[in-house]
Amino acid sequence: MAAEPVRKPEHEEKPLEDTVVKIYRCSKVVKGGRRFSFAALVVVGDRAGNVGIGYGKANEVPLAVEKGMKDAKKSMHGVPLLERTIPHQVIGRFGATKIVLVPASPGTGVIAGSSARAVLEYAGVHDVLTKVYGSTAAKNVVKATLNGLLKLRNKETIEALRGVAIS
């Protein structure tokens, strides 16, 4: 009696990966000295078009990271991709930060700073050029990058919105 081969589902979800972009340390002066608390900026994604950012605060680093991951998983967003890059140039803004995301030819890689790179790589973008203007604070750059990715539209979406076929 031969065992049947196990069939995997056609559309299997990729597991979520996460990375800590930055750890912030805050101190409060009390009678006995300084008390430290920590905050973690975390990016979570499946490297296939879904990405989320989270921010967690706690008295210890591992707890802050865990809270940040939980927050990021709650705020997952889908990003339209064109093969390995983005469909068109876009500008993301948050606070005093402005980031320009430009599609690049295959083999270019992710040309970005560490904060923007984390968001782009976990979203599944392999080839892109970026330039940050204004504030380069990690929180602002991460949020501006996500803002830019959420402004992206693929050809099918534009055709549906306009009601015409684009050649």
Please characterize this protein's 3D structure.
The chain is of the alpha+beta class and 167 residues long. 27% of the residues lie in helices and 36% in strands. It is built from four helices and eight strands. The strands form two sheets. The chain has a four-stranded antiparallel β-sheet. Strands 5-6-8-7 form a four-stranded mixed β-sheet. Strand 1 and strand 2 form a beta hairpin. About 4% of the residues have low confidence.
Write a compact overview of the structure shown.
By secondary structure, this protein is an alpha+beta fold. Helices cover 27% and strands 36% of the residues.
Features:
four-stranded antiparallel sheet; alpha+beta; 167 residues; single chain; 27% helix; 36% strand
Spatial order of the strands in the main sheet? 1-2-3-4
What is the count of DSSP helices, taking H or I runs of 4+ residues? Answer: 4
What separation lies between the terminal Cα atoms?
A: 56 Å
Helical content band? 25-40%
Overall 3D geometry?
Answer: elongated
The SS-based structural class is alpha+beta
Whole-number radius of gyration?
19 Å
Largest sheet: 4 strands, antiparallel
Task: Give the secondary structure arrangement, pairings included.
Elements: E1 17-30, E2 33-45, E3 50-58, H1 61-74, E4 76-78, E5 90-94, E6 97-103, E7 110-111, H2 114-123, E8 128-134, H3 138-150, H4 155-162
Parallel strand pairs: 7-8
Antiparallel strand pairs: 1-2, 2-3, 3-4, 5-6, 6-8
Helix pairs in contact: 2-3
